Amino acid sequence: MEEISSAELKASLGTKFVGNEIFVFQNVSSTQDVARELLRQGALEGTVVLAETQSGGRGRFGRNWFSPSGVGIWASVILHPKFQNSANSLRRGIGSDKPIGAGAGLTVVSLTSSVAIANAIRRVTGLRSFVKWPNDVMLHQKKVAGILVEMVGESIIVGVGINVNQEQFPEFLRDSATSLMMESGNEVSRISLIREALHQLEYYYILLKEKGFSPVIEKMRDISSVLGRQVIASFNGKKIIGQAVDVDIDGALLIRIDSGFQVRVLAGNVSIL
After folding, report:
1. Where are the alpha helices (DSSP H) in 81-170?
2. Cβ neighbours for 26, distance < 8 A, ≥ 6 positions apart
3. Do 32 and 157 sit in the same domain of this protein?
4. Residue 143 belongs to what domain range?
């Protein structure tokens, strides 16, 4: 089993700030929880928390995240984007000088991080991973990675879970989850993938801050698993059925329903029909 060490990860990492500080733990409740504590202690932007396993890993809406020891990447990255105060607002990519609101900002960062992780998987493994709005990375319509973005004060913690070398999953996940090894037939170096993931996260985060969300959307259109497909979106007991046609500058999924109208969906679950 390949062990993760901060010294090995930092060797020739080559990022500007993401990964300048890396903390590696054997077992934590959640890397998100550890990152929160580090934020209270004044952690710098780009600080990374990694764990071999999590006893209370979580995804969106508080769902449990299966985090077995030694076979996945369970990580959190601390960012200080300053949504409301930055001169380089996230909308600048389409010519507006109004800063994006924090709520929409979480969706934007989630999508941007999903694009980064999908790109990292493609570069390291050659597998054609896709982004499923708003925070999942898919291989053959099964989930291989997920993103959880949480705001703490003016900072954001980006949680990343990647199924790397699992050979099997519990019965309740077998129809919906997969791993890079199961899809490729080969063991994947977690060290190599973490390095590439940190590079891609930094690249797309800088792109987002400097150029806005528009260029990220362009990339996401190329690797989206839902755009152009018939989908059902559900949130708080409500369901919307139609064709997913685009993502707007707030990160909302645009769904064209039977009447021809487009509905903006900013949160919820999306399934392909």
Report:
1. 102-125
2. 51, 52, 53
3. yes
4. 6-223
